[in-house]
Every structure is written in C-alpha cells, then in structure tokens.
C-alpha cells in the first residue's frame, strides 16, 4: 500500500487525520463515560435501594409484629374465649357476641391498618349489628381461604395478598390467621385482615411505579407493587442469592436478565423484600450522559473540523500559492507576486523561489544579450562582405583586362583576390576549415609579396592533422593585415609567422611579426583613427565573444625582440560550429 | 513549523478541557433529577358517609364530578352501612384523625358541636335553605353542620307478599289499630319462616312513632328528661308480646340478624317479614334489591300522626381537618350546585336547597317520586322533628338496643323493660 502522506493533497490529509483523531477521542470518551457512570449508577442504586429496603423492612416488620401481638392478646381475651366456647345461649350469647364484636370493632376503628377481623368458630351467631367490620363465620368454611394451607402446619400464618368483599367493594388485604386454643381446646381461628395498600404504600415510598415485592421463603410472592417477574427468573435469583450468601458477599444487588435485584430480609417472618429495577432504568442516566457528551462532542468535533479546515487552509494556502505561481511561470512574463509577510518556513520557501526566479531571469537576460551580439556580429560580417558576387564578377573582368593588358602581376593579384572572395563568401557559412583559412591568408600574403616585390616573407606552420578543423572564417586576415599595414609601415622588410597548434583541446593560433610593435602604432586595438584595423580586430573579438565567450579570445603582445605577437585561442572543432547550439551544451565546448 | 504544532496542541488541549468540563456538568445535573416530584397544590379530602349502595354510587359520581371541576382536589372516600359508623367515626375523632368531611345524623350534631369537634361553616351559602333545617346544625348563630336533605319516616312493605296472602294494602293515614289488625288478619296464612313485621317491641324509633301518635310527645324531651309514657310503652310492649306469642314477629335470633339493605340479611328482602320502618329516600335502595316488590306507606297514626319529617343527615367539616377551607367549599358545592343535585337526586332526601329541589322535581326518577309521595303525605300533619337533647346518643344506641334484645329474647317483660329504661335514663339526665 502506498503511503497516503505521499498520495493525497495536503489539506485533505490534514483535515482527515485530525477529524479521525477527534472522532476516536470522542468515541472513547463517550464509551468510557457510559461505562464508568453506569457502573457507578448500579453501585449507587444498589446502595440506596438497599438502605430504603432496610428501612421499609423495619417499618413493615414493626407494623406486622404489632398485628401479630394484637392477634395474640386478642386470642387470649377471656370474653372472646368464653364466647367462642359457645356455652351461653339466648340473649346471653347475643350479648356476649355483641361484646366481643365491640372489642374487635374498636380494634379496627383505632387501627386504620386493619380492614376487617373475622372469627371462625362453631355455630357462629347471625347478628346484623357491627356487620361492617367484624364477621363471625363457620369453622367449616376455612378450607377455601388462602391462609388455610399455611395454618394447617402452624398455629399462626400470614397469607399472601388476596381480596375480600367489603363495603367499598373488593379490597386487597394481607391476612394473619391464628388458631385459638383455650384449655387445650381448639375453639376457632382469629383472622385479621390488614389493608395491603397501606403496606404497598410503605413499599413504594415516595417513588410510585417501582417494582418492589415481598416474597416468602419459598419465593412465592405475598405482595407486590407491580407485576411479578416470572417464576423462572425468581427461582434463578433465589439460587444466585444462596450462592452469594454462602460466598459471604455483602453486596445484595444481583444482576439477572436485564434487571437489578436488590433485597432485604425480614428475618422475623422469613420473608424477603425484593426490588427489581429494569437495567434500562438504571443505565438511562448513563445513556443520557453518554448522549449528552456525544452531542457536545459532535458539536466540538464540528467546531474543530471547521477550525481544522481553517488551519489546513492556512497551512496549505502558501503552498498552493507557490504551486500556482510555479505553474503560471513564464520567462519574462507577468510574475505572480508571492506574499512577503511570511517569516517562517514558508517565507524561506518563497524567498528561495523568488531568488531562483531572479537568477533564471538574469541568466535568460544574459543569454538574450549574447544572442543579440551574435546576430549583430553576423550582420556586420555580411555587411563587411558587401556584395561579394558583384565584386567577384568585377574582379574576374579586371583579371581578363589585366591579362589583355599584359599585366601578369595584376592578373595574379586579381586571381588571388578572387580566391579570397570565394573563401570569404563560402556560401554564407560562418565556419570554414583551417585548410581554407590558410588558403585565404596565403592569398592575402602573396598579394602583399607581389606589392612589396621583395623584403616581405611569411611562414605558415600548421600540422596537417589540424587542417581539417574548423574555425570562424577570416580570423587571421585582420591581424596579418594589421601587421602589414601598420607593423611594416615605412619599412623595407617584414616577416609574418603563423603557427597553429592544438593544445589541451584548444586551438592556439600565434601570429608574430617583426614590425614596429604596438607602441609605435599607438595601440592598434582600439585606435579608431585606423578604421580598417580597428574595425577588423573588433569584428574578430565580437565574433569570438558571440560564438564562444570566455575564455576564447585573442591577446596582442609586444615581442621583446620587436614586433607583435597575437595569441588567438579557439576551441578545437572537428565540424562547423552551429550557432543555434550556442546557448546549449553542444559537447564541443570544454 | 514549531508554531503550528504548538497551536494545534493548544487547540486540542482546550477542546479536551471543554469536553471533560461538559462531561462533569452532565454528571452533576444527572444526580439531582428525581428529588422534587411532589404533588404541589394537590389536596386530598377524606370524606365519610353511611348509606346503601345506591347512595354510595351517586356520591362517588358526585365526587368525580367535583374532581373534574377542581382538578386540584381528590377524595379518599370511606363509606359503609349505618352499623358501626358512629363508633368508627368517634374513634377516629378521638384520635384527632376524623375525615375532613363527615356525614352526621341530626341527633349527633349537637354532641359534636358540644365537644368542639366541628369546624365553622360560614363559607357555605345557606341562604336558600329552610331555616328550620339549619337550626339543628347551629350553635348560636354559627353554622357547624349543613343539612343535605329532608326525609319522611314511614313504613315499607312487601306488596307482592301481602297480595299473595289476600290481605288489603294499607293506605296513607292508616292507624296503629289497623296495623295490628292487619297482623292478626294474616295470622295463619303466613308460610313457615315468614312473619308480619320485625320485633319492634324495644325499637326506639318505632316506639317513638307510637308514642307520638298517642299525643304523648318525645321519648326524651328536648330538655333532656326521660319522657316514656308508661301506659303507652306497656300497651306497645304487650301488643308485640302477643305478636311474638302468635309467631307474627321473628324469633330473637332471626330478629337480631337483620341487616338493612343487605341482600342476604335484610329480613324483608329475604322474604322473612312484610313490614318494616323506612325513610322515604330509601325506597330506591330496596327497589334495587327486588324490583317493584315494595310500596311505601305513612307511619300508622293514632290521635296524632305517627310519622315525621326530618333532615336526613348533615355534612360537617372536622375541626382537625387540615383542609377545612377546601372542605367547606366542597360542602357548599354539594348543597348548592345544580349539577351535583342532578347526580345525587333524593339519595339523601329531598334537597334542602329550595331552588334546586324545585329544579329537579320534574326530572325525578319513578323511585324518587314514590319517596316524594310519602314525604308529601307525611308533611300534612307530621310530627315536628327534634334532634333530641344533647348527650343521649348512647341511650338510644346501647340502652334501647339492650331493651330490644331483652324483650325479643323474652328475658324481660314490658314492665321490666320500662324499669330498665327508666333507670338507665337517670345516667343521662342532667
């Protein structure tokens, strides 16, 4: 896989990696806060539910104990026992019953918790008075009562919640039944019905809708504030509870099938107070918290993304500017200005780019200048050639005239001149071979010899292998002409030597004369009064400059023994130099 | 480049801080959520009354209507039959735990006022209520109890049973002589286990009617003096002793088992007796237990009328009530609101608010109209009702009950019973 940091654009990368980091951090924060707070919620819920259940446990225990005590003391009541033994008859029995009823009724009046008191006995008396709260019933009717099963194994028992008919319709009650035995004689059963709604209110406390219940030892529910969990869960919980107890764990909160079970034991009754809270209720706070953090986080992420976007824009803007500036760069064209107020890395980058551009411009400018010089030199050369064809034809005619007139010398001169012209023209080529250059200068020198008659000698020393090399045409003639016109002026003899050598890939041409030297001529190089010579040398220098530049040049020197030496340095060219390559790297240049 | 990095780190650090700060804030606010969910301004009025099923249903419907109109007020009703009602109420009052609104019998009102257990009801508009009815609920000029209706005391009888026996139906304005004669007439025709009437020998109210009809006044005078006319009492006692001997009244154990309005224990409903005493407003209660079987007739008369009109019952607000003002407002609504009156009908007697009484008269049900007939018949020359002297409640509820049972069980002769009552009365006389 390729490195994304090399592939995608800078702002994209910056933005994405930052956004990714933020999202990862956010997700982690949400997850952690949910985990921690929900664990804490469970711990707190367990703790507070436990405390509440213990408190309710105490209250319920004290209430129910009171009922048990009242039941006990009532069952020992002498009048009650006398009445139940059923010895009295007639009015006395009615009065006895009324008396007992009044006592029991007063209990129900003074204890709002008691809904009704039933007395099961042999031959109950039918009496309409005080029927509302106290009922005498036949002992045979007990079998269908909810407490009868439990009472068969014990002298007293609590029933689970059931409904009895009262004045105000069906009323849910818990019943406490106690056998009445007097003088070892089984007289009947005293049943106190208490309002289970009161107990339920105690169970519910100030939070209606909670799922709390009272279970007996076998896991059967006696009373519940809402729906009962199915028996399977309850028995599973009982099993877990036993395991917890044997493990001596103080924690009374048990998690089972998406609910939290917290309990408190009513030891004096062998019952258990149980609160079941759906897991979702407990963790709803945590979910809310996680959601809130999530929302805030998303907001923060969005904000950060905007910020990141802005940041990445800030960072990539100069780079983009640079890129676009580079893309639109044209030599000498309009330059997109880069901002100047960066002092950091971007500033360095911009400065570097700017400097480079300046140098490119400079280079370009110098190239252009050189090209212009070359053009100028060439044009000058052409101008110097005037109209070679016309001259050439004229020379030919003159030659014929000289032959006709018998001037053999003149004819020879004209022939040599024609040769010189031909070479000078050389079909417009700027470079000619050394061979041709030698021919050219020999023609000139012979003309001079013919003019001088005697006293003028020359010597040309060229290695045969160099004759095939090329050089700009008519390089030698201006110097030789200089020697002849100025160096030998007023003298009867003169000698010119031309030596061409190839030294270290450079063509070294030395022209020496034994003339008057430079001082006498007053510096022929720049002496404008001698137009011919001055023009010739300047022309050579311009051409060298245009074609090759430094270090190719010539040097005029005074010879110690008298006369002048010219040292011309040229590149060794084994083929004509192509001026089009002048700015390029043709390979021939050192 | 260093600058950029530092800036980025700062941005990151700031955002982390922000995030964690928000998280903390959330945590804190989450913890104190469910602390203040109490029912602000909600008032729960406890109200207690006695009556038959018919009255319970109508009253509950009226309470619902009131809650609908005043959503801040809900009720915790407590209702039962008459038996044990006063005992229970007195016990609660003794514990300073009486319901906010209590229904009182006119005979009890003066005792409750005397004990300072009732709150003033000056907030209740009583301008449309008959001053005679108001008097029993007043102490000086202050109203402590508001009357709810007026009823006539008379008799109800099983007309189908009477027809089966071929006996004539009694007419309004009949006499005690005709009553006892009718008893004699059905003698022998009655099937096994059926009797003419209850054993009223020791019944305070039945005897009061008899003594009234003889022109001998109240059993206990308004001044709180024992006022049983011995001859009248003995005549009454012996008449019943005769009925008892002839099997025209039920034996004692059956007699004591009677429970008014109870479908399985009301002796008339179970077909054991034909005649019993009744208030005009209760016709519907019996009719609902056995449709079209019963008829009302005036209390038998003698030289004077036997029956009387009385304020059926009163509403009072307990002194211990924490919502006395709201309770009084409710009582005002209960007696003066036309919509409430429509629901309540004559379940507590003819409404005391004369405008409302006139307004609902055309809309009265058939049963209510039957009650109205007895009311009208009794009104003509009925005895003047007296709430009785204060402090005699137990004399009626306990001592007379004992006398009733002694006579019923044959444990005492009428003469002995008279002596017992006379002796017992000494405890109440001042």
UniProtKB/TrEMBL annotation, chain A:
**Record-annotated Signal transduction histidine kinase internal region domain positions:** 377-453
Q: Name one GO molecular function term.
A: phosphorelay sensor kinase activity
| Cellular component, GO annotation | membrane
Matching entries from InterPro entries are given as: Bact_2-comp_sensor_kinase, HATPase_C_sf, HATPase_dom, Sig_transdc_His_kin_internal
Mind telling me which residue stretches traverse the membrane in this protein?
13-34, 289-311
Swiss-Prot/TrEMBL keywords:
Kinase, Membrane, Transferase, Transmembrane, Transmembrane helix
Entries under SUPFAM superfamilies matching the protein = ATPase domain of HSP90 chaperone/DNA topoisomerase II/histidine kinase
Instruction: Outline the extent of the Histidine kinase/HSP90-like ATPase domain.
Output: 475-571
Q: What is this protein called?
A: Histidine kinase
Organism listed in the record: Paenibacillus albidus
UniProtKB/TrEMBL annotation, chain B:
Pfam families reported for this sequence: SBP_bac_1
Which residue positions does the secretion signal occupy? 1-25
Domain of life of the native organism:
Bacteria
Q: Which Gene3D superfamilies match?
A: Periplasmic binding protein-like II (3.40.190.10)
- Mind listing the UniProt keywords for this protein, alphabetically? Signal
Q: What name does this protein carry? A: ABC transporter substrate-binding protein
């Amino acid at each position: 896989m390729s490195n994304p940091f090399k592939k995608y654009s800078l702002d994209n990368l910056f933005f994405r990696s930052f956004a990714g980091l933020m999202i990862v951090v956010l997700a982690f924060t949400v997850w952690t806060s949910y985990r921690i707070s929900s664990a804490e919620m469970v711990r707190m819920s367990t703790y507070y539910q436990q405390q509440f259940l213990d408190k309710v446990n105490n209250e319920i225990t004290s209430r129910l104990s009171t009922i048990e005590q009242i039941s006990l003391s009532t069952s020992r009541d002498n009048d009650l026992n006398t009445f139940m033994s059923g010895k009295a008859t007639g009015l006395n029995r009615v009065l006895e019953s009324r008396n007992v009823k009044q006592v029991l009724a007063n209990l129900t009046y003074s204890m709002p918790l008691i809904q009704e008191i039933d007395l099961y006995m042999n031959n109950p008396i039918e009496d309409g008075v005080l029927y509302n709260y106290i009922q005498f019933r036949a002992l045979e009717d007990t079998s269908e009562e909810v407490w009868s099963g439990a009472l068969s194994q014990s002298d007293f028992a609590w029933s689970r919640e059931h409904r009895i008919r009262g004045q105000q319709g069906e009323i849910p009650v818990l019943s406490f039944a106690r056998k009445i035995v007097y003088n070892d004689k089984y007289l009947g059963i005293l049943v106190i019905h208490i309002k289970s709604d009161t107990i339920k209110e105690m169970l519910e406390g100030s939070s209606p809708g909670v799922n709390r219940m009272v279970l007996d030892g076998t896991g059967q529910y006696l009373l519940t504030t809402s729906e009962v969990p199915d028996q399977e869960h309850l028995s599973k919980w009982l099993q877990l509870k036993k395991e917890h107890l044997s493990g001596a764990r103080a924690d009374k909160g048990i998690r089972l099938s998406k609910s939290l079970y917290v309990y408190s034991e009513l030891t004096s009754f062998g019952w258990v107070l149980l609160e079941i809270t759906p897991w979702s209720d407990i963790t709803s706070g945590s979910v809310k918290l996680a959601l809130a953090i999530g929302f805030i986080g998303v907001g923060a992420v969005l904000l950060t993304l905007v910020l990141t976007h802005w940041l990445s824009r800030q960072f990539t803007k100069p780079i983009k500017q640079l890129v676009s500036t580079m893309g639109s760069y044209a030599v000498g064209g309009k330059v997109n200005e880069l901002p100047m107020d960066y002092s950091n890395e971007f500033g360095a980058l911009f400065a570097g780019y700017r400097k480079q551009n300046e140098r490119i411009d400079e280079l370009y400018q110098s190239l252009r200048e050189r090209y212009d010089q070359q053009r100028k030199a060439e044009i000058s050369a052409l101008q110097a050639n005037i109209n070679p064809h016309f001259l050439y034809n004229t020379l030919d005619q003159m030659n014929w005239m000289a032959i006709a007139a018998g001037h053999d010398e003149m004819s020879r001169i004209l022939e040599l001149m024609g040769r010189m012209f031909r070479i000078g023209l050389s079909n417009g080529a700027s470079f000619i071979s050394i061979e041709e250059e030698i021919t050219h200068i020999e023609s000139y020198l012979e003309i001079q010899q013919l003019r001088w008659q005697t006293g003028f000698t020359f010597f040309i020393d060229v290695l045969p292998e160099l004759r095939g090399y090329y050089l700009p045409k008519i390089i030698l003639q201006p110097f030789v002409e200089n020697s002849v016109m100025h160096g030998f002026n007023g003298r009867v003899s003169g000698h010119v030597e031309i030596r061409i050598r190839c030294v270290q890939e450079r063509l070294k041409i030395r022209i020496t004369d034994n003339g008057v030297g430079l001082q006498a001529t007053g510096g022929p190089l720049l002496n404008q009064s001698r137009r011919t010579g001055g023009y010739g040398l300047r022309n050579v220098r311009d051409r060298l400059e245009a074609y090759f530049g430094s270090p190719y040049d010539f040097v005029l020197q005074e010879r110690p023994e008298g006369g002048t030496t010219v040292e011309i340095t040229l590149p060794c060219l084994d083929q004509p130099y192509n001026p089009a390559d002048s700015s390029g790297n043709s390979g021939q240049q050192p | 480049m260093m600058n950029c990095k530092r800036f980025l780190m700062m941005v990151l650090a700031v955002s982390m801080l922000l995030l964690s700060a928000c998280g903390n804030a959330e945590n804190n606010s989450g913890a104190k959520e469910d602390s203040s969910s109490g029912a602000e301004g909600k008032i729960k009025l406890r109200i207690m009354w006695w009556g038959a099923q018919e009255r319970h249903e109508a009253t509950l419907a009226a309470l619902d209507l009131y809650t609908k109109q005043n959503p801040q007020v809900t009720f915790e009703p407590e209702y039962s039959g008459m038996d044990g009602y006063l005992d229970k109420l007195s016990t609660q009052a003794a514990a300073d735990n009486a319901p906010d609104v209590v229904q009182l019998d006119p005979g009890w009102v003066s005792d409750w006022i005397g004990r300072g257990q009732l709150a003033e009801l000056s907030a209740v508009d009583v301008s449309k209520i008959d001053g005679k009815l108001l008097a029993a609920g007043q102490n000086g000029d202050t109203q402590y109890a508001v009357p709810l209706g007026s009823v006539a005391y008379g008799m109800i009888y099983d007309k189908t049973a009477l027809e089966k026996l071929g006996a004539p139906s009694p007419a309004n304005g009949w006499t005690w002589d005709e009553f006892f004669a009718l008893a004699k007439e059905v003698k022998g025709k009655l099937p096994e286990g059926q009797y003419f009437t209850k054993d009223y020998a020791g019944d305070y109210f039945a005897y009061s009617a008899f003594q009234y009809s003889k022109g001998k006044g109240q059993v206990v005078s308004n001044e709180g003096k024992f006022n049983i006319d011995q001859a009248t009492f003995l005549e009454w006692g012996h008449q019943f002793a005769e009925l008892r001997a002839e099997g025209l009244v039920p034996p004692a154990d059956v007699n004591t088992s009677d429970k008014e309005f109870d479908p399985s224990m009301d002796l008339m409903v179970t077909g054991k007796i034909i005649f019993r005493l009744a208030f005009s407003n209760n016709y519907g209660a019996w009719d609902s237990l056995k449709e079209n079987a019963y008829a009302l007739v005036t209390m038998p008369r003698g030289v004077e009328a036997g029956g009387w009109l009385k304020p059926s019952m009163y509403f009072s607000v307990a002194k211990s009530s924490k919502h006395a003002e709201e309770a009084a407002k409710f009582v005002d609504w209960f007696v003066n609101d036309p919509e409430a009156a429509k629901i309540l009908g004559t379940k507590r007697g003819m409404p005391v608010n004369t405008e409302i009484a006139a307004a609902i008269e055309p809309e009265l049900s058939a049963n209510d109209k039957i009650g109205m007939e007895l009311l009208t018949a009794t009104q003509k020359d009925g005895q003047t009702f007296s709430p009785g002297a204060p402090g005699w409640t137990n004399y009626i509820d306990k001592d007379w009950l004992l006398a009733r049972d002694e006579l019923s069980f044959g444990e005492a002769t009428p003469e002995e019973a008279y002596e017992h009552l006379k002796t017992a009365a000494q405890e109440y006389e001042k």
